[in-house]
Design goal:
Mean pLDDT: 87
Radius of gyration: 26 Å
Strand content: 5-15%
Number of strands: 10
Number of domains: 2
Structural class: mainly alpha
Length: 432
Amino acid sequence: MNSKTIQRIRLFTAIFAAIIYFAGLLGFFYPIKLFDINIAPLIQRILTEFTLIAGILLGFIFILTAVFGRIYCSTLCPLGLFQELCLLLFHRKKLPSQKNRHLKYFLAAISFGTLFGGTVFVLRLIDPYTIFGSALSGTSYGIICLALIAILTGWRGRSFCTNICPIGTILGLISRQAHNKIYIDAKSCVACGLCAQKCPSGCIDFKNKTVNNETCIKCFKCLGLCHNKGLKYGHQTNGKTTNSPAFSPSRRRFLIGAATFATLAIAYKAGLQLSKDIANKVKTLLLPPGADSSEHFANKCLNCNLCVENCPMKILKKADNTYPAVHIEYSKNYCSYNCNKCSQVCPSGAIRRLTLKEKQHTQIGLAAVNPDVCIQCGLCVRECPRSAITKPRGDFPQINPNICIGCGACQAVCPVSAIKIAAVTTQQTLPK
């Protein structure tokens, strides 16, 4: 298979993946199974509710990287294609060389440290999947981040992927020892430097004839540029390494590794406290069915807004400055009794995947009637899908807390706004 064919296959696959992402985020269909192979949400899901499928998917991605290198970054990551389009728009004849910055290890340590500590707060700030999803759903933070990444890409190529992205850092460490690598054939290479000039990751050192496969995102552009076929992709069997420098237990490497682990430990401890602080801010919010509790949901939600975009009743609202988490607002509508879409599209485990029957028995709130406002019309009694409201003759409606799930249908139908839904501390499955 020649280099042009490889590039075309990768590009078409990347475009297809991006279309699926875009359509899913706009709410055109669900469940979006492709979202289940996004690393950050997948790791979060495994930590939240480990399943065999989740473990297999994560293992598949890591094995794919161990065999082929960072194919994930150039093909399956939606932000990868976005940066590629940015490079086409800026159309620079020569990209600046990049260095492999040690800062990325500390960023990854902070991100995953707080994640293991119980909150995705830091990870969702720099995770490519979350940034892309937030931007497409119209969140200001996502749009600003996407604009900054576009500027960075035009200035420094794929430096976000090589020196900022925590997912890229993890995959880079695996890719460093991948079975198949891009390497320079010293006999064919004439050291013209054309490959290095066009490399978006800055991973080619044509003078020393080495390729840093840790930062190489496997875009395969370099293969088609070399007229002498001095660049090859595959398993090198000649015994001479011309790829990434071999690992050496130098003092510098030891100190960086030790400092990274220390950062991870500190971030873990900070994550424990941060998760509690975040939970206190959202404890009064109505949350989607399957969120379980404010502490669980607020610290597991990546703010990808998939649930928001796929909600047919449009009662799920994005996080903002007032409400730091996705939440339910019953001001214009209610939670449909026969809908469980939000739990089906959540990729991170913040919303537990519920069957429709499970959802219909999950209490997310509790209705309360204000007798000072109620006109005893009885509309709420007829509207309740669970018959949780009764109205004795000549008296105000009575709410059965053992049946009411807080769907908001009664609140929506009340002509005088006499009914309000209050959030429950912990969601529970009702027997009836």
